[in-house]
C-alpha cells in the first residue's frame, strides 16, 4: 500500500504575490458576514508589514505567540478565542509566519471542526472531520510546513504531530519578498531544518523515486543557497523548503529529527536549532551530510550552543529519551526494521550527553 | 498577477499502486448505483492488462481510439455515449493510457458538466462549471498531461487546449510498472516531449524559481533516463514527466511546440514525434538542447522521418503556419514581447520547408 498523498490545492508563487491574498480570500467569503481569522506571528505586531494584512472589518487578527514551540494547550486556547469571537465558523484561517504560525493555523482550523483537545489527535489519521479552509503565507522558509500533512505540537505527554490529510493547507501563498528580512541565525537554522530533512530522507530506507526527485532537488537548492549565495537566494530557499516538504510524501526524516524532538520537549529548544545541535553529533550516521553542514556553518559564522544536556537531571534526560523513542517511523526509516536493536536507550543517552 | 496554480488533489506513486485504484474509486461511489467511466487506450483492448481494470458491473469501459490525436468531434461523440448510457452523471471518469487517453478523459469529464461542443472551449479559462471527478493512470510518460491544466484538442479550426483550473485531474495514479512495456519509438518520442518541454521552459522569458526548480530536475531525470539507462528508468521517467508538467505552472513551452502543433494539425503527426521532427531544425534557437537531443537519438538509434513538408500544397503549408501563429504565449515565452517581428510568416515557412 502506497500513501495516496494529499496535495495543497492551490499555490501561488512570485515576488509580490502576497498582494493577491485579498482576492484569493474573496472566493472563500461566501456571505457578506463571512469572517477570516489571520493567525500572524507576533513579531509582526509592530511592523510595517502589519498594514499589508488584508483584514476586513469583520475579520479577526490573532498575534500568535511563537516564543515557545506550539503547544496543544495553546491551540485549545486559540480555538476557544475564535469560538467566542463568533458563533459561526470562519470562512478561512490564514497562518502568516514561520513553521510555528503555520502549524498553529493548521491545528486551529482542524480543531474548529473537531471536538475535544488538540492533544487527543496527536498521532496518525485520528482526525475525522475536514478542517476549516486554511491557507499559509510563509515568512520564513525551511520547515516544509507549507506542504506537509502534519502540524507538530507539544502536548502534555509528547511532542508529536497531528498527521492527517485534513491537515494539508488548501492554499499557499509563496512570496519570496516576505522572507528577505529574517535575522541571519533564524534564516540559517530554519534552512538547516530543510537540509537535514533531505539528508535523512535521501539516506532513509523508505525512499522511492517520487521522494528522491523532490529531495535531491531540494538539497541542490540548499547547497546553492547556503554555499554559493545566489542572487535569487530567497526564491530558491522557498522552493527548497517546498520540495523538502514534498519529499516526505514517501519517506521520513530520521535520527536527527527524533533526537531534536527530545531536545525541544525537555529544553524548549526551537525545532531548527534543535536539529542543528543534534546533527553536529551524527557524523557516524550521516558522514557526508554532517561535513557539508559544517561547511555551511563556517561560511555563515554560526556558533552552535554547546553543553545543553550536561547539567540535566537524570529524570529529564530519561524523559528526553522517551520522547525520541516514540518516533518509531523515523528510526525505522533511518536504521531499518531492526532499529530498536541498534538504537538502544544507552546509545541515545550517550548521544544526548555529548550535546 | 501570478497564476494561482491549481494542483492535482491526490497522487499515489509506486510500483504496483494501480492495484489501489478500486479502493480509491470506492470513495467516489456514493450510491450503490454510482458508475465509473473508464476511458482506456484501445491498445489494451486485447491485452492481459484489460483484466486488471477494476470495473464493476454497472461501470462503462470505453476503448478510446488514439490512432489520431484527440479531436473535439470525438470528445463530443464520447460525451453523447456516456449520456446515453445513463441519465445520471458518472461518479468519476478515469483515463488510462498516454497523453491522448488522459486528454480525452479530461475533456469528457469537463463536457459532461458543460453545455455545447468541446470546440467552444478551446482557449483559456472558458469553462464555467467544475468537471466530473476525474483521474488519470498514465501508461506512457512524457507529456505531463497528468498534471497540466490543459487538454489539447484538434478542432475544426485549430489545435488548441481547453486550459482551465477545472481541467486538472482530481487524482493521479503513478505506477511505474505500467510504462514498462511501451515500444521503443513511442517511449522515446513521448520522453522527448518532456525533454523539449524543459528546454523551452528553462530558456523562456516567463520563468521563475518555481518553474525553474521543477524544469531543472525534470531535465536531470531525462538526461539520466535517455543517456545513462538507470535501473529505475521507468520510475525516473514518470517523475520527469510529472516535474516537466509542473514546470509549466509559471512558464510556457516555445518554438518547437508551436511548430509541432502545425505539423499535427495538417499532417496528423502525433505530438511527440511532431516535436522531435521540429526540434531537430531549431539549433539556431536551442543550440545546446538540440545537440543533446541528437545524442539521445543516436544512443537509441532513432531515425526521424524526413521530407514531410516538401510535397505539401501551398494551401496546406499556409494553414500550418496559421495554426502555429495562433499560439502567441508560446512565441512570447521563446522570443519576448516583440516576437512577431522576429518570427514572421516567411521565417516559419522556411523552417517548415526544411522538415
TrEMBL record, chains A, B:
InterPro entries listed in its UniProt record: ADH_Fe/GldA, ADH_Fe_C, Alcohol_dehydrogenase_Fe
Superkingdom of origin: Bacteria
Domain Fe-containing alcohol dehydrogenase-like C-terminal: from-to ranges: 189-292
Residues covered by the Alcohol dehydrogenase iron-type/glycerol dehydrogenase GldA domain: 10-176
Gene3D superfamilies listed in its UniProt record: 3.40.50.1970, Dehydroquinate synthase-like - alpha domain
Sorted UniProt keywords: Oxidoreductase
One function term, GO molecular function aspect: metal ion binding
Protein name listed in UniProt: Iron-containing alcohol dehydrogenase
This protein's encoding gene: adh2
Amino acid at each position: 500500500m502506497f500513501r495516496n498523498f494529499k496535495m495543497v490545492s492551490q499555490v501561488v508563487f512570485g515576488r509580490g504575490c502576497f498582494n493577491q491574498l485579498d482576492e484569493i480570500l474573496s472566493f472563500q467569503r461566501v456571505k457578506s458576514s463571512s469572517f477570516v481569522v489571520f493567525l500572524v506571528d507576533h513579531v509582526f505586531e509592530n511592523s510595517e508589514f502589519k498594514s499589508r494584512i488584508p483584514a476586513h472589518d469583520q475579520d479577526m487578527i490573532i498575534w500568535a505567540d511563537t516564543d515557545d514551540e506550539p503547544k496543544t494547550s495553546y491551540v485549545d486556547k486559540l480555538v476557544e478565542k475564535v469560538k467566542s469571537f463568533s458563533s459561526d465558523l470562519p470562512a478561512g484561517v490564514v497562518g502568516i509566519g514561520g513553521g510555528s504560525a503555520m502549524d498553529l493555523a493548521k491545528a486551529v482550523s482542524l480543531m474548529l471542526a473537531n471536538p475535544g483537545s488538540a492533544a487527543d489527535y496527536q498521532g496518525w489519521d485520528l482526525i475525522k472531520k475536514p478542517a476549516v479552509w486554511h491557507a499559509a503565507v510563509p515568512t520564513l522558509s525551511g520547515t516544509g510546513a507549507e506542504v506537509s500533512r502534519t502540524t507538530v505540537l507539544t502536548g502534555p505527554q509528547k511532542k508529536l504531530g497531528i498527521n492527517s490529510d485534513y491537515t494539508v493547507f488548501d492554499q499557499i501563498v509563496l512570496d519570496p519578498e516576505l522572507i528577505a528580512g529574517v535575522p541571519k541565525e533564524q534564516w540559517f537554522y530554519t534552512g538547516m531544518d530543510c537540509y537535514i530533512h533531505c539528508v535523512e530522507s535521501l539516506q532513509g530506507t523508505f525512499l522511492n523515486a517520487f521522494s528522491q526527485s523532490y529531495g535531491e532537488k531540494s538539497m541542490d537548492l540548499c547547497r546553492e543557497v547556503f554555499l554559493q549565495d545566489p542572487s535569487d537566494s530567497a526564491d530558491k530557499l522557498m522552493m527548497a523548503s517546498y520540495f523538502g516538504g514534498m519529499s516526505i510524501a514517501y519517506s521520513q526524516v530520521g535520527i536527527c529529527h527524533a533526537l531534536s524532538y527530545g531536545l525541544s520537549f525537555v529544553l524548549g529548544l526551537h525545532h531548527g536549532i534543535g536539529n542543528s545541535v543534534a546533527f553536529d553529533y551524527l557524523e557516524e550516521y550521516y558522514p557526508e551530510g554532517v561535513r557539508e553542514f559544517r561547511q555551511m556553518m563556517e561560511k555563515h559564522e554560526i556558533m552552535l550552543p554547546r553543553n545543553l544536556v550536561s547539567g540535566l537531571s537524570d529524570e529529564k534526560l530519561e524523559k528526553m529519551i522517551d520522547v525520541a523513542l516514540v518516533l518509531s517511523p523515523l528510526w525505522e526509516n533511518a536504521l531499518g526494521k531492526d532499529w530498536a536493536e541498534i538504537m538502544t536507550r544507552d546509545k541515545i543517552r550517550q548521544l544526548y550527553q555529548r550535546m
